[in-house]
Amino acid sequence: MGSLCLVLVVLQLSWSLSFSVPPSSHLCLPHQRDALLHFKTTISVDCEFFYYGDTYPKMHMESWNKSIDCCSWEGVKCDHVTGHVIGIHLSQSCLGGSLFANNSLFQLHNLRWLDLSYNNLEGSLLENSSNLFHFHGLRRLNLAGNRFNGTISSKLFSQLVNNFYGKIPNSFVNNRKLSHLLLNDNQLEGLVPPSLANCTSLELLNLGNNKLRDKFPHWLASLSRLQVLILRFNRFYGFLPHSIASYDFLALRIFDLSENEFTGTLSTKLFRNLRAMKDKHKQQSYSSNFQYDGEFYEIPVNLTTKRLELEFTKVVANFVSMDLSNNQFCGKIPENVGQLISLQMLNFSHNNFIGPIPTSFGNLVALESLDLSSNKLNGRIPSQMTKLTFLEVLNLSNNNLVGPIPHGNQFDTFDNDSYNDNSGLCGLPLSKQCVNHVGAEPPSPLVVEHEGSVIPFFWEVVMMGYGSGVVLGLSLGYIVFTTGRPWWFIRKVERDWQYNFSRWVRRNRVRRN
Questions:
Q1: Could you tell me the residue range of the domain that residue 123 belongs to?
Q2: DSSP summary character for residue 267
Q3: Which residue has the higher pLDDT, 93 or 369?
Q4: Number of domains in the chain
Q5: How big is the CA angle at 50 (ends 48 and 55), to the nearest 5 degrees?
Q6: pLDDT at position 476, please?
Q7: Nearest CA-CA partner of 76 in 109, 111, 46, 128
Q8: Residue 179 included in any domain
Q9: InterPro entries of this UniProt entry (predicted)?
Q10: What is the Cα–Cα distance from 254 to 64, expressed in whole angstroms?
Q11: Do 134 and 270 have their domain in common?
Q12: Are residues 304 and 371 in the same domain?
């Protein structure tokens, strides 16, 4: 018993000492701490001229001082084993000044991701190119929304996410670690280099809002991990090649080709391969892949509702969408688009599509927004679409649709703007009533069952009368056949007839008198 007490006392003393004695060293390496502090002295912080909308600026660098372990500074992330600084996230931090080639930031050779986006930094990337090569393990670099200038070497482009101008170089190194490449919102021009196919780990490629002029880079489909492909607001042109079927786009969840110059029809083979958009049961976790310092990467999404074009932001990690709007696609919308049951947003507006809306759209049960406006679609709105119980935005305006508007579920919440400029549509919420299917094709005499019409009710009454008569006739026939002459029935009829006849005779005699 005494030995047990002694052991407990020793353990208690050891625990007390472990909590009372300060650690002998910080996790942060001194030379990397000094490099960060020197970087802080070379830039200014001034939020007076910054506007981030509803987002407040992030004053990360206020915690940067020697009294705190640099691995605990806001916007800094370290490797828990080696103590090396591996991540810096200073987006929207009101930073200003120049980033020169001798900046101490380039001494952090172990950086895996660097985000200085949406500040007011400036400088020449041509001067800084050789220093950026020191980031051997760099996977994500975001310098968008600054004032950098100059041209970029081909080697640098294999790793960069930037806000520069010029052409995308024709050669990329074999960077198999690069997972995210964001070149959006710049003034890049020229072609998309096929050497991007060497980046086999690429999951997110955003080339939106540039001046790129090229045919569809079909070789991107060979990137089996690619989940997000955004080519919006460029000058891409031509057909989407049918040979795309030889590739898979297995993991693609966000596909945005809007605001380009694409033409031709859509191949059913394209939608056949989009497996990640088909499987609603496969709940993959993308949070770690699309998260930066605890914040998820977002993309802009354009929706037109109530005649207003609005821009929303959606978190990439849990969004599935397809946007082919504002091109020159033609022909019918393939029926197998309705197999993409994980889609949350579908936008085919402002094209030249013809034919009916596929009835298979009723299978898109996860759909929240559907825009088919400004095409040449005809026929009826499929009643199957009332199954879309998550649908919040619907725009079918500026088409040639006819017939009654379906009712039920979300369709009871949409207003006139969803159906404007379809002269053949009728029924609520439009003021035009569906009288004899005005605007629709006249029904065949043999076909009387049309949804939303008063004709079915009339025929239901008629058939009820026929049915009752048939049942009564068969019943009387059965009685006559099995029992012979129904004397009880005949006697009742004779008595009633004699009674009524005698009353009629007496009434006539009274009138004569």
A1: 26-163
A2: P
A3: 369
A4: 2
A5: 115
A6: 57
A7: 111
A8: no
A9: Leu-rich_rpt, Leu-rich_rpt_typical-subtyp, LRR_dom_sf, LRR_N_plant-typ
A10: 38
A11: no
A12: yes
